[in-house]
Design goal:
This protein is α/β, with parallel strands linked by helices and 392 residues long. The protein has three domains: 5-83 and 91-164, Cytidine Deaminase, domain 2 (3-Layer(aba) Sandwich), CATH 3.40.140; 187-281, GTPase HflX, N-terminal domain (Rossmann fold); 294-313 and 350-360. 39% of the residues lie in helices and 17% in strands. The chain is built from twelve helices and eleven strands. The strands form two sheets. The chain has a seven-stranded mixed β-sheet with strand order 1-3-2-4-5-6-7. It has a four-stranded parallel β-sheet with strand order 9-8-10-11, with helices on both faces.
Length: 392
């Protein structure tokens, strides 16, 4: 039975190359740890022939479950071809990579982020071309969220030695998330900010954002900052800075990214796609704080109405190609998407809240009319002048 899925840049491969890749994916590796040296050497030869990087994902039994050509891209596209979890207790995923690069084993930040998303217990990287003395350089990495790159180099050296490396169980304990994400009651949040030339103002804005996050019951675990220059209208932040932010999300186990700039619906979706993490801006965070602290029925009604009005535009524009109005010929589309149902449900809820709000305003107006003939008393004064003490 075929175990591995072939993915990545497979377009243009000849039938003979397909057969070589198929045989490569069927080769068995040691169980638990290590890798088969002959398979890695054939893998390096194919990398030179195809001029494409190659990655293998092994399970605990040593079976190849995914063979990926080209750079690691799209965590979701990779994970959808893998089972939920390794079947045996002997080990988790192992990632084997042979990068096609003339800069040696230089680690790409984007690939390091996606490799962390696969949640492997180890990552073996080796050069496709041996050195003059016949040795093929390699490095064995373990996930470590406390390191800036998200990975810790366990050993570097000859591939023939590293592919037979046996790890102690204690070597993979760094895979666990940081202590900040251990408590289920406190949500770890990463802050994504743009700074201006005014350093004092930027510090005050960052302190205010941190205070808002704590007021919402979350904990800021990291801050990624970029100087505000010519902003990218699609994301507001540059590609390199977003790769750094994505790595920080994995390192700290952040479940939410909060920005200090207002985001359009398109910008929010682009950031969520690039960071693979939910993204909220300052306005949504403030609405969440209001929702937590709204005590009266009128307050809860107004906050819910504001939240729904904020979220409704962020649903528009999705699923239009599959909609009843936009799909098929005339009105014979394939039906409604769940997104359209959600959008219509939100619209109905907004209409209901508007009616409730109108009834509330009419009720308050009647109460004011009843109090119109009563005398009014006001207690005014400067701050800390003793108004509350006098009233009590």
């Amino acid at each position: 039975m075929k175990q591995a899925h072939l993915g990545g840049r497979t377009r243009g491969l000849r039938p003979g190359q397909h057969r070589q890749l198929d045989r490569l994916s069927h080769r068995r590796h040691p169980e638990g740890s290590g890798a088969d040296l002959l398979t890695l050497e054939r893998m390096a030869g194919l990398v030179q022939e195809l001029e494409l990087s190659m990655h293998l994902v092994l399970d605990g039994r040593g079976l190849c479950r995914l063979l990926w050509l080209g750079p690691l891209q799209g965590s979701e596209a990779l994970r959808q071809h893998l089972p939920q979890a390794p079947r045996r207790r002997s080990g988790g995923w192992r990632l084997l990579s042979c990068p096609f690069s003339r800069s040696g084993l230089h680690q790409d930040l984007a690939e390091a982020v996606i490799a962390l998303d696969l949640n492997p217990i180890s990552w073996l990287r080796f050069a496709p071309v041996p050195s003059r003395d016949g040795l093929r350089s390699a490095e064995l990495l373990l996930p470590d969220r406390h390191r800036s790159a998200g990975w810790r180099t366990l050993e570097q050296g000859d591939l023939r030695i590293l592919c037979q490396q046996d790890r102690n169980p204690g070597d993979i304990t760094t895979q666990e998330p940081s202590p900040t994400s251990a408590g289920p009651a406190i949500e770890p949040v990463l802050l994504l900010t743009l700074t201006t030339a005014d350093a004092g103002r930027s510090e005050r804005e960052l302190a205010e954002l941190e205070g808002l996050v704590r007021s919402a019951g979350a904990q800021p675990v990291a801050v990624v900052t970029q100087r505000a220059g010519s902003a990218n209208p699609q994301t507001l932040w540059g590609t390199g800075k977003l790769q750094e932010a994505a790595l920080e999300v994995r390192r700290h186990g952040a479940s939410l990214v909060v920005t200090d700039r207002e985001l359009t619906p398109v910008q929010a979706r682009n950031l969520e796609r690039l960071l693979a993490c939910p993204v909220s801006d300052r306005s949504e965070l403030i609405l969440d704080i209001f929702a937590q602290r709204a005590g009266s029925a009128a307050g809860r009604l107004q906050v819910e109405l504001a939240q729904l009005r904020y979220r409704l535009p962020r649903l528009l524009g999705r699923g239009r190609s599959l909609s009843r109005q936009g799909g098929g010929i005339g009105t014979r589309g394939p039906g409604e998407t769940q997104l359209e149902k959600d959008r219509r449900a939100i619209s109905r809820r907004i209409d209901r809240l508007l009616r409730d709000q109108q009834q509330l305003q009419e009720h308050r107006s009647r109460l004011r009319d009843q109090r119109r003939g009563l005398p009014r008393v006001a207690l005014v004064g400067y701050t800390n002048a003793g108004k509350s003490s006098l009233l009590n």
